[in-house]
Amino acid sequence: MKYILHFLLLFVVSSTISQNKKAILKDWTAYSQTINVSKFEGAEFKVSAYLKNGKVNSKGKSALWVRVDKNDNTTGFFRNDAYDKSKKVTNEWKKFEIVGKIDSSAQTLTFGAFCQGNGDFYFDNFQFQIKETSGKWKLIKLENGSFEKNRANDSWFEGIRKNKIVNVQQFNIIYTKETSSDGKTALQITGKNIIGNNENGKYVNVNNVDLYYEIYGEGEPLLLLHGNGQSISAFMNQIDFFSKRFKVILVDCRGRGNSSFDYNKELTYTLEANDISLFLEKIGIKKTHIFGWSDGGIIGLIMAMKYPEKVNKLIAMGANINPQGLKDLDGMFNTIKELEKGNDGKNDLFISLYKLMAYYPKLNYDDLKVIKAKTLIMAGDRDVIKNVHTIKMYEAIKGAQLAILPNETHYFPEENPSFFNELVLKFLSE
Known about the structure:
There is one protein chain. The chain folds into 2 domains: 3-191, Jelly Rolls; 202-429, Rossmann fold (3-Layer(aba) Sandwich), CATH 3.40.50. α4 (295-306) links the parallel β18 and β19. The model is unreliable at 1-20 (pLDDT under 50). It has helices at 3-8, 239-243, 269-282, 295-306, 329-340, 348-359, 387-396, 412-415, 417-429; strands at 23-24, 28-36, 44-56, 61-70, 75-80, 94-101, 106-116, 119-131, 137-140, 157-158, 167-168, 171-176, 186-191, 202-206, 209-216, 220-225, 246-251, 288-293, 311-317, 374-380, 401-405. It has 9 helices and 21 strands. It is α/β, with parallel strands linked by helices.
């Protein structure tokens, strides 16, 4: 699947980070603990904790999250409450919990704190309970669930997978005695300097939606278009590099980031491409290079087809031109069914985003033959897009270049930004 999973499912496909805690740039982080639950398979469970926000940007958020990993390396139960409006964290300590069932063949359960955006986020008194056959809830002891011990001596880690520990530069993690739910010690995570979360951008109204954007640097325009469930913060690893050479334009597509959404209009890539065309006109950009990642790549391709006069050079990373190019289309339809079950409106945006990927775009390879812009088609050889689909896209565009990178995934621009940025710069400089 594409970027909506990075957003809705806490980015289950995590970055390829080594055990030396390589520093990365993100607009979110997780602080987690993993426990063995193989002996509890089939049982109901509860994960709970107390949460509180300090001084938080209006777009910042925090939540509990839980994931079960099975012994065949697939993911079972998953929930991240960051986007559940009924689970909003305030500036007062409040208990939150996630209730679920441990899957058959379960091996481990990972849970913890999730934060996104700028601000101070607090967590305390994590607990894990199993429902016994008698119906009573049994408390299972956790390692340093109230953060009383020294951080260096416990089993908590930054990231969402124990074997891929990260250090997100925008977040500082400490155990603090300044505030706690029980008067002792609590976990404090502080986010700073996150683009798209500083409330210093601007808005443009197009097609009945307000699109949020930020601009960095001077020179030839370079428009960066993010993936399905992401926002402009997806490009935190690209801003400094490209803004030294280009006028970098970042925009949140409708319904993502800080941009508004029109629930009365079906979400399609053609509609989004028209949004971007009108957006460029309103900010006075006649022609621009476009780098589109995932769904952003699809929008870039449609821009090059429908609005060729506005596209200079085009880079499409991890894009597809129809749903058959996805490796896990069946899984996407299953997710749509789950989201639609008992939906009371809170999942409407997510459903729209999943349906966008499941049903669109509806292009053929021959449709790409009209593209005149100099084009670079990119993907990782372990991408969520089928390699043969990527190759056929490249073959359909006259004079296009192809880069399928070995041992890289759909998240190549984030996981290996130095290499990625240099490849893109080389293409733009030719």
